[in-house]
Task: structure prediction
Amino acid sequence: MNNQSTNQNNFLDEVVLRDRLHLYTKKLNINKWDLGASSSIDSSVQVDKGEAKQMKSAQRNSITIRVWNESGLIGITSTSDLTDNGLFKAIEGAKDASNLGNPNDIPDFSPLSKDPLPELKRPIINPLGIKTLYSVLKEAEADLIGKHNSIKSVPYNGIAEGISERIYINSNGALRQMRSTHASLYLYARAEESGRKPRSSGAVRLAYGAKDIDVESCIEEASDKTISHLNYQPIDTGRYLICFSPDAFLDLLGSFSSMFNARSVLDGISLSQKDSINTLISVPCLNLDDNGLHKSNIGASAFDGEGTPTKNLSLIKEGKLVNFLHSESTAKQFGVKPTGHAGLGAKVSVGPDWFVVSRSDKYRLSKSNFNHKDMKDKYVYIENLTALHAGVKASQGSFSLPFDGHLINQGDKTSIEAATVAGDIKDLLMNIVSIEEEGIITPGGVSPHIWVDNLSITGEA
Amino acid sequence: MDTSTFDDKWKPHLELLLAKGCSSGADFVEIFLEKTDHISILAEQNIITNVSPSFGIGAGIRVFKGFRDGFVSTNNLTESGLNDALEQALAMLGLNVSALDRSKFQGLNSLRDFGNAKRNWLSDCPKTKEATQKLLSGTSSLEVLGKHLQVRRGSYSRSWQDVIVAGSDGTFAHDIRLHQSTGLNVLAADGEHRTSIGRRYGSSDTPDDLINWDEKNSAQEVCDSASSMLYADYVDAGQMPVVLANRFGGVIFHEACGHLLETTQIERGTTPFSEMIGKQIAHPSVTAIDEGITPGAFGSISMDDEGMESKKTVLIEKGILKCFLSDRAGELRTGHIRTGSGRRQSYAFAAASRMRNTYIDAGTNKPEDLILSIEDGLYCKSMGGGSVGPTGQFNFSVEEGYIIKNGKLTKPVKGATLIGEAKEVMPRISMCADDLDLAAGFCGSISGSVNVTVGQPHIKVDSITVGGR
Result:
């Protein structure tokens, strides 16, 4: 291992890394290159009835290198072997791959890769250490089991903390570096009552450091949700008024994010077309932003894989599609600027950071007074959707998804035993009947509760 | 440390680390070293749009004390890097090396080299240029054979892994693994009608697999499916009998039952079958097997990631539960003996009990007998993905389905999802045909994503919930 590329804390030294790349690429007659590097140290614990089941720690470094050959074609390689031999082999691999580069789509450096970065005032929190993590989790497990007689175990649980670093460098002088810390806690309890099926639910909390995780509220939420599913019944198959929780609505939107993705549009696998900008794709009172810089986004990054600064981007404004997410390559083809949503590749991927759904008060919906806290009419509350990888056909717009939720009638709440909800995302966005006022912050974004009428549910009744 | 080859040269270094671990009071110490060489290639329409090679090295060190274990992974394979990792893993369990006591460790056995005959496999694989030509032949076959194809994609990935496992019980084993997978996908569109269809094929330990791939036949299969499904109606929801086709239909058994027969599920208390050994858990027509020995199958392994030779494990025999899949930690914590099923995606994960090639064994019926036995039901010709929840509930999407009416296949339908619970569905598998076949896939779970094979003959489930519109 050539430790010149890492400092004493095992993190990458971006200046040394840049100099090594200059040296090796010169040897191979490569004049144009860029790289993305990441480094992390993570620790985590899981417990089982008070005992530490497994304690883990990981130290990782990896680099992705892109090179442009004499013909201007691009090649890429990734490696976790940062020895001299490993790095040299990776550059050679990228050069070989460039001989098969796509002449019809050649990414370039982002024109914004040397622009000033947004200021991210995120704290760097010192780790608590694995023994303290164990103590916190052990206590949380015991507290959760103690919340209700029917909660017998917490089969899925974990607490983790880590520090990570990202670097972007190119041969044109761009050099980006950022370091961040993160921590997480998840608790999924299993409850069982005599003669009844086991039920399970849980909660997740994120923070910049383990000391800041709101353990109490995680226990409360996991307990409340699990207990709320003890009184369960099958539901009749039919069409229902639905209230999506913020988590569920964000998951659904995320699964269909190819609608906003310029790469998917160019590849022909999006529901949107190149000329879809300014068309109405939802009810007029829906706004959707992608805001990776949101203060509640624990995983915020100041730049994307191509070094483009992250920014808040409006995607749907008053029902109209107003922007796509772009990389350098797609932006060039659309005649716009990159938006800070790119990965790093020969074919550059594009993806959202952090969705923020909100209500535009300029327009009113037919049922704009609906509120899940005091709704008297019969409706189905979808707490969370599962198996999105299997039940969403993003290029077709259809979904058929299992969910956890409740049938609520005159305030009476009955958990739904096993059911799926099915529909079409384009129809769903057009059939929203109410968007509640309060935006709820979740681990994956911000959204109010969203009401949709006449969605199809299959139950086992 | 020389990472160019994993062989006997590593023995003294590994023995020293293991001796340190044992001197500290650990019950067991295991070191897993890995080197990888992957490449993935994507062809879209008639052009190669992505060639992504990647290389990796890493080590995973696991220490047991009582029922607890500590696991540390690192990319740093220097002597000091491995020492640091060991010390971290020991410290997690409250252990530390004060003085080296060689008597605590008896040394490693002679190297059991499963990889010796495989050292040329990487160079025997097709060159990148050859691979791109084969993929482009696949996407042009789609163009020739298909109609209304808006997107045509071919993908190839080759994964080469060189591993060595050393344990303080003397285990010392080396292996080289080669997995290749190839896929064709299309998006067909005509006005408002859209469908996406894909097929994936995979093999292990067969360097010339891509060259021997019949891409035209695969393209024909994909285009036939797309043609059927493009104008299909949505399925009506309800409870009904279904027939699941062979090959990838086995994903249901994998998800709904196979995972519940891993000892990790006993440890968590999340399997309903933990006390059911020797008892009837499925219909008497069901015999289910998990093994790692079928030559060339995607889930086959010469040894598992704990250095144990692979074997065949009968899970269910004529409906009676016979065995759980167990790894080292599973054996320690549940008492079920190891079955050569300790698997992990990479050095970054501790091994866990995982499936290999898992299938329902062939029965005696003909596939058409199963269809003929149903008045109103659903034929699931091709399955999409699925998952199983923490209480055993499963769900699967049906990629290509047909309504069965009076014993005959009628119109194609889309949008179906099968949902249920393993404990309730297993006794309802009432008929198995004689056409067992396997299909390659990837399984994601506690120790990452591993190559597996699912399989079954055509089977009939007497009643299951079909989600639709």
Remarks:
- Residues 3-222 of chain A form a domain with the PmbA/TldD fold fold (CATH 3.30.2290.10).
- The mean pLDDT of chain A is 94.
- Chain A has two domains: 3-222, 234-461.
